[in-house]
Amino acid sequence: QVQLVESGGGLAQAGGSLRLSCVASGSIASFGPMYWYRQAPGKAREVVATIIGGATNYTDSVKGRFTISTDNAKNTVYLQMNNLKPEDTAVYYCRWEIRDFGTGLFRFYWGQGTQVTVSS
Hints:
seven-stranded mixed sheet; mainly beta; four-stranded antiparallel sheet
């Protein structure tokens, strides 16, 4: 069984920074694509940043401000968020495709979500 645990959310002022972490644990054989999503109140969940095949991609609203990165030795994916804006307020989720060591199968796992609130 694989689990993802997120941390790093909280309250920030506009223009400030936060770094989110998503740590994978359990029966891990290898890693695949990884995603950060967010969901603001009353809105659909949206993809914020991805790493697929080593290439990063970002939604337009966060380009130049957010950076997704990984530390595979620590089984961790990060989302560095700089120059935060009130419209970045949302619950942030990581989603990671991981191959289970026991079954040999890839499947997607979700973190539990972490609240980010940006005040103006």
